[in-house]
Amino acid sequence: MLLNLSDDDFDEMELVEGALVLNEAIDPDTKVTWAKEELARLVDEAKHTLIAHTDGPSRLDAFLHLFYKQWGFKGDQEAYYDANNAFMDKVLESRKGVPVSLGALLLYFGAELDFPFEAVNFPTQFLIKVVWPEESVHYINPFSGEEVSQHTLQAWLVGHKGPLSQLKPDHLKTADHATIIGRWLALLKNALLREERYTLALRCTDLALVFVPDDPYEIRDRGFIYQQLDCHQVAVSDYQYFIDQCPDDPAAELLKTQVNALSHDHVTVH
């Protein structure tokens, strides 16, 4: 299904809907119909709860209280890298997620409830930008629901990129859905690799290569996955492609050793 979608298709969807398409393409057991029904149920509940709130900012405060306190959505601090935090049906079930999955939910409710939310693909994590007319822009950390100051964003950037880093407007620009889906896909692939769920991780890499064909780093990762699945001949081919395309990358020397070792191994055909 996902293979027939372009970047423009993703931008025309709500981010949650794009994520569900992504999730189902990776794991066909994703409960897409249930997730959509649960989202519709929560929207109805939110509209009923917020009916007495007419002022925009106070209505937003009431919604954030509903989302984080009453519904109980929260960042998963105990198992941040669990793949379930990137599958939308699992997030809706457990009420736990990571910034991008919780942020996608906030964007969905924002569109349904007329909140001026925009997505920000900040270097350290996903953010929600709140743009009220004639007011200064605010940023929400989807992991906690708390407002994030410019000072905190600068501190995050320094921690991520070093002491000379400076917060720039480009760091806080509104991101399109295709860019966010790409980040989501990388997060999901890495989580599945940690959990040694290599068949699902391979689907992530294959999907990524639909959007960035011939990307040497994706092909290198695919080679690693094929190696874990004992498909050594394909792994050697992918590793060799990376070595040829990125000869100066430090990983290239390590992969040359892998190629030599695997070339002498018995080839398993799947």
UniProtKB/TrEMBL annotation:
Protein's recorded name: Protein SirB1 N-terminal domain-containing protein
Species lineage: Bacteria, Pseudomonadati, Pseudomonadota, Gammaproteobacteria, Vibrionales
Any one Pfam family match given in the protein's UniProt record, by short name: Transglut_core2
PANTHER family given in the database record: F-BOX ONLY PROTEIN 21, SI:DKEY-261L7.2
Family: Belongs to the UPF0162 family.
Domain Protein SirB1 N-terminal: 35-185
Native source organism of the sequence: Vibrio palustris
